[in-house]
Amino acid sequence: MKRLIAIFLMITVLLVSMCSLSGCFGTTSENNSGDDLSSSGAKSNEIVVGIAQDPDNSLDPYKMTAAGTREVMFNVFEGLVKPDSDGNFVCAVASDYKISDDLLTYTFTLRENVVFHNGEVCDANDVLYSFKTCAATSVTSAVVTALSDITEISAEGNVITITLGSPNTDFISYVSSVYIVPDGYNEQDTKPVGTGPFKFLSRSVQENFIIVRNDEYYGDKASLEKVTYRIFEDATALFTALNSGALDLVAHLTIEQVESLTNGYNVLEGTMNLVQAIYLNNAVEPFNNELVRKALCYAVDKDAMLDLTADGHGTKVGSSMYPAFTKYFDEDLAEAYPYNPQKAKELLAQAGYPDGISFLIKVPSNYGPHVDTAVTLVEQLKASGIAAKIELVDWNTWLSEVYGERNFQATVVGFDSSILTASGMLARWETGNGKNMINYSNADFDTAFALAQSTADDAEKTKHYKRCLEILSETAANVYLQDLADFVAINPELEGYEFYPLYLIDMSKIGYKE
Questions:
Q1: How many structural domains comprise the chain?
Q2: How far, in Å, CA of 176 to CA of 134, rounded?
Q3: Helix or strand or coil: residue 413?
Q4: Which tens digits make up the pLDDT trace of 261-293?
Q5: Residue 61: which of 181, 175, 148 has the closest Cα?
Q6: What is the pLDDT of residues 163-196, one digit of tens each?
Q7: Which range of residues forms the domain containing residue 87?
Q8: Do 490 and 478 fall within a single domain?
Q9: Could you tell me where the DSSP H helices lie in 267-384?
């Protein structure tokens, strides 16, 4: 196995330097029920899951921003429909639905006896309230845009009818993102209530997050009675707890962690369903210069990066789309900038930087795969006269400074899609979009995206979305790297883990072997 000693030493030094930022002594909320750091075992039918990120401060389903929050809350909230592990949309709060031939009218029949976690029975008024509230408060711009085209939504008995102003072949995917919540319930921020197979029990900020089985669930009941998520914003502490057997399940491990695992746990391999890249702030020097961004693309050897960080696991990408979106994904874009340090130097000289450039990469310290990638890239860039330094920051700092305030030059992270449609990956790059953290602005991209959104013809929509991806590549919006391999370590007494085409873990499928 190929490894660079220098890279390992850099990782070790960087991680040790961040121990004080790991958030191990977080503030405890009033909902804290506490738990000990030990695996529950089959007798109590509970599991302890290690995660690298504390969920968002607000647990309101329409205010969720972090992929890690959606990964957990998928078990608590449901829409009229929801995705399954094959990427199909299956009935959830609705028992069935119909779509008119002109794609303008959607009719949903509500399932009988769906009960919210607070004991109230779900009815049509709750659905109307949920759609109205989601349209007004959702932070997901693609969902808000789709809902804004609703010309009428009405209820007659247990039948909900939604009429659109224009046909939208992706609308059912947006419906899955409208989680159904109780009409008028105003404590979702701290005491979330949904209809899912698990219900929220408590949280202790930066320590744990606990859900328990919903015994009133209309569908197949979860096997597990309780899931405790233990939060480790320090990668070393997370792995130590896993290897000791104190955790039953941990996803998103690095290959190095997998190869160091000695506790006999099973390791599953899938994909993370995200696009990892060096995301570049297009509004600040030197990355406001397209030639500099292209030079950076040529300065990265993706194949060597995959070998060094993951023994070749993972899939190279060349734009803001991952392979699970099969009809949109273009594998040829991954080869648009073959490794060429000399070409990188020439472009930098043309851009006015004959002596190279230097810049800072801010990386969230709690995500080992991103830290490993950043360290490897820093070494590669030196061959092109590019001096990059890494600043490891805790997750909350990354959210506020990088994502919120856009106070950064570059960052290594991964972006996923909250919905099973291409717009979930591409809408953020529209000019002026509130989630456009890299400040990307390109009129041709905006036009292609608008055309994709305006047509009901699937072939036309696909063509325009793929053009969007080409434009992101041609303008070197970011240095696109890979869809990371997702390694999951799981207690051998457990079964039922399934990989989804979205960034989530379905706890209702997991249980102890009989």
A1: 3
A2: 12
A3: strand
A4: 999 999 999 999 999 999 999 999 999 999 999
A5: 181
A6: 999 998 889 999 999 999 999 999 999 999 999 9
A7: 81-175
A8: no
A9: 290-298, 302-310, 341-350, 368-381
